[in-house]
What we know:
Elements: H1 14-31, E1 33-37, H2 38-57, H3 60-69, H4 73-86, E2 95-100, E3 110-115
Antiparallel strand pairs: 1-3, 2-3
Helix pairs in contact: 1-2, 2-3, 2-4
Amino acid sequence: MRHSDHNRRFGREQDQRRALMIGLAEAVIKNGRIKTTEAKAKELRPYVEKLVTHAKSGSLAGTRILTSRLATKGAVTKLTKEIGPRYKDRVGGYMRVVKMPARKSDSAKMAILEFV
């Protein structure tokens, strides 16, 4: 039974989905905002917000968790040095999903995911 199994699958296997989330998370951390499909943006938002929460703590344990969840050291450094301190006083809700018009080629719903 698939009770409480409500994550999107994106037509990919588990490792491919994990790699997709890591790649999108690093892109949004590096650039501050990305344009992607609405489903991917909605799935990525809690993933990145949890990373920001770990970065806010500034602890060694938080840094190690970030290192395990991201692929490059540059993304971890930017999270801990720039993005984490920026949201020190904010309790949550670090990301914003802005809906865009559908993509012309396949009519996929598009969205912009950005930091607040």
